[in-house]
Amino acid sequence: MRTAVPPVACVGEPRLTAGFAEYGRLDLLAHEEVHGPIGPMEPAQLLQLAEGMQLKGKGGAGFPFARKLRAVLESCKRQDLAAVVVVNATEGEPASWKDKVLLTRAPHLILDGAALAAYALDADEIVIGVADDGVGRDSLMEALEERRMPVQTTIVTVPHRFISGEGGALVNGINGLPHIPPGTKKRSSDSGVSGLPTLLSNAETYAQLAVGARLGPYEYAALGTDDEPGTVLLTVTGAAGRPAVVECTAGMPLRDVLDLCEVPDVQGILMGGYHGKWITPEAAEKAEVSRKGLAAVGGTLGAGIIVPLGVDTCPLGEAAQVVRYLAGESAGQCGPCKMGLPDLARAVDLAVAGSQPADVVRAAAGEVKGRGACSHPDGTARFALSAIEVFTEDLRLHSTGDGCGRRVKGVMGLPGAPDANPQKLTLDWSRCDGHGLCAHVVPDFIRLDANGYPAFPATPVPTWLREGALKAVKVCPELALRLAKAE
Known about the structure:
single chain, four-stranded parallel beta sheet, 19 helices, iron
């Protein structure tokens, strides 16, 4: 469980982090002194502001906020229903801390943005989703006690899992359903919380909206680029000598952020988090911190996560650990996740072992891309593919079967196992006679190789396949298969 919020730094003019140096956490009085007053806005005003700011979602997808707002307004009018405003502050991405920093140190900025949206939509309720890791909830509750919100505002706690932060999963959790993405894609702007039109956006997005409402679109655009005005919050971890949450001006050289966080020589840098992309050290020297700037060098801004990988660990081994984790974090309700992600994890593991070429990883990734009920298969495939493209020399060394000679240090910020009692299958080859019964019992996880013997990934058995794995163990006539605690 995460408890310690990392330090905060700023390159350039602070906006979201203004007042942090003086006050630490901004209570309501400090918040108003630093940021000044704010008043309600009518729908047309708020739309004009969001469009003028070119405000995009800060949770990873980068969807224009004005389009979300307009969609909810139109849906409310069409259905003659009230709206709900949802703040996604769950931050299920293990490597991300930016929303936690806002919750713990600038909660009133988040509440300001949510209140602006609720007033413009004439909403019935504001719901704020936070993770059950305990970080930020008390600060948020204290902030709510200090002020009056325009409508009823509640806090909903969700499991601190990777997929719990997906928008549809959060809506499901608020509605009392399992905290997983819905099995089919649907728009929360049409039917979200309690079946009502729902405006759902990330905590930083609402905080940026509150900053823009005070500055106006023109002053807000005094920082940043023409395409992406304003500032960006980044979480820098991994090999950084000074890990931190950094606020910087959009368009700033990535090298300035890396230097601030004392990042040493690296083999590659993961941009955007576990659903992001790796870039080379050479690309990092040319990159600018913006969606457009990072895309130009093969990266992505995503949720504002930067994980530099030092030269003292095995990069493909580190990537394989993440793919295994992501396979275990699946909701397990559609084929690309349920079957495809374990296959992808297996393919990456075998590439690291030098027993299969990179083409097998590409093929496994191709089987899941664009086919999932949510973005989890796409994001996992993107991560795996970029790893084999960036770490080509390491892949060549592993293809010989000897490996790169570096151990896997586990520096990617992976949390503990996704369930309290993770278990993995093991096989006693001295007993196995290749009956193949196990693969018939749980084909989602166990396959037969070219010689008819069982093959399965080294990842812990996903919770939704645990019962099937137990059955496979029981039907093995030679008692060769075991289900043991994963280390």
